[in-house]
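User: quick one, fold this
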Amino acid sequence: MNISKPGRNLVFAILAGLVIGAITSLIYIDGLPLVIFLVQLNAFVFTGYGIPSLATSMIVVLTPISTSVTAGTWDGVVDVAFNAFAVWVIDGLLRNVYTSRQYYLVFFITGLAGNLLSLVAEPSNVLSMGASGGIFGLIAGAVTADYAINRRWNVSLVAWFLFIFFFSTFLSGISVDIFAHLGGVLVGLASGYFVGRSRRARSSHY
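Assistant:
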């Protein structure tokens, strides 16, 4: 299957997050595994030590390697597999919507928005990780970009997006951060509309 350079790079980054998670589980700082500073533990973020994790947790995940704090889990492996496969499959849609720069930027902004919403909406003991907020942001953006360009809703695209969102968030049986998904989607809708309107404006000048 053909995949764009931004899509391929995002898949590699997601897979690399598993390796980073495994390595940093074995490195300790003041008695704590480094990985705990890279995945989003809300309590750590509020102390200030975990602020960088609002960004790093989009990629870095926990692994089955057990530590005294993280108690090794397979959730990170499942998350990485699902997210990498999702990007590979939907890249055909995304590369037709975004430039390379927009692809990366929308992923980062929407993923960060999802993590911030999770931070304020979830209890302080909640730990979250993974790229799904940014991925859903990219998909939601594709929906509103299409609307902004064509001035009408693509009913099939909207229905597909709603099915994927609700199935993955509520029905998949996989442990997910609902607020991270929701935050990514809301900011993705706004970002996509801006991308589509900008493209329409450029087209009207030719």
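User: anything notable?
Assistant: Strands lie at 28-29, 32-33, 40-41, 127-128.
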